[in-house]
Amino acid sequence: MKYSENIKLRNARKRLEMLKSFYKHLLVYIVVNIILFAIRGNILGFFQNTSPDKNFIEWIDWNILIVPIFWGIGLLFHAAKVFQYRFKFIKNWEERQLERYVKEE
Fold first, then answer.
1. Domain 2TM: where (predicted)?
2. CA atoms within 13 A on the CB side of 34
3. 71: three-class secondary structure by DSSP
């Protein structure tokens, strides 16, 4: 095997591991959030019947709702890294900077 083929194979394995890691992360995200929303009604129902404090009930509700939002943002960044997505505004900025540097030269 040539050296360049070894490098390509190593890079392909690295990308595959990153992809597997992302899919595992996505699976855990889905399973945990399904469990959270499934028990959300039960927990809130229990505390609504036993707790006179409405602030505590709202606190539990917001915590259960906030977890998927922030975790989802992290998951989006993970996906962007794995799939090597370049945000359009970054690409546009890079092109403008390149044009500016070429004009300066």
1. 11-102
2. 6
3. helix
Q: Dihedral of CA 80/82/83/89: which sign?
A: positive
Token pair of 36, please? 């959270």
Q: What is the pTM of this model?
A: 0.66
Task: Name the phi and psi angles at 6, rounded to 5.
Answer: -60, -40
> What's the pLDDT tens digit per position in 51-68?
666 777 777 778 888 999
Q: What is the distance in angstroms between the CA of the first residue and the CA of the last residue of the chain?
A: 43
Q: Where are the alpha helices (DSSP H) in the chain?
A: 3-50, 54-82, 88-104
Whole-angstrom CA distances from 101 to 7, 86, 87, 94 are 33, 21, 21, 11
